[in-house]
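Final report, section 2: Outcomes. Of the targets proposed, GH16 domain-containing protein is the one most frequently requested by collaborating groups, and we therefore present its record in full.
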Amino acid sequence: MTKNYYKAACLAIGMLLFSCASEDMMEETSTQTATVGINNTLEMSKKTPIKTPVNILTWDFNDLNEWEDATQAGVPNYYIENGILRMFTNANTWDRTKVKSVATYTSGTYSWRVYVPTMGVGDCASIGAFLYNDDTHELDFEIGYGKESARQELNAVADDLIVYATSQANPYHSFPTKIKREQWYTLSITLALNNKKKYVATWKIDNRILTTKTLTYGTQKKFKIFCSVENLSFIGDHIPTTQNYGLFDWVEFK
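The predicted structure is given below as tokens.
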């Protein structure tokens, strides 16, 4: 009887010790599993790339912060009105009214939102949206009435103006086409890099490609962004007899 009682007591104590050990093992396993789960999550978060939004710089012309005067002839003929930069040149002058960005930029897409008005018939006046490093590293949109000879070649009618998409050098390239007056347009120049690290320039109006040209240089040439209205001899037949203007709603780089 005593022996049986002793055996039963030993059996009960053994089962109790086994139960406690099992609980400890389960708790340790559960803790290890939870820790591994946290570590895996941390590792996955480290490996998962975080998408950075594309950098877009936009100037809305509520002011001229980050821009400076670049007028070459005459007085600075421009002002801001209701978030729009109005630029103009005077009749019977060779005014060259310009503003330029303070900073310089390289590859990317440059865009200008521009209103093209009626311009004086035969006037040597141009609305310009362009990139400038120096006289041999310059990419332009130039919009004006155009010489009569150029208008005839393009079969321009009364409400047409002429727009030139141009690389001034390295290499020289100029593409003329027609554009309707009294409308807003988005002009853009995209500078991409080819496998030789040279710029490939693409000129567009309202996302329609006008022309593309591979340039002889790359990002060692940085550009300032320009807005202008200038009286220039190449784009008309006589000194302007009227005041000509252009409107710039915004400029963008991305």
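Confidence is low (pLDDT under 50) at residues 1-52.
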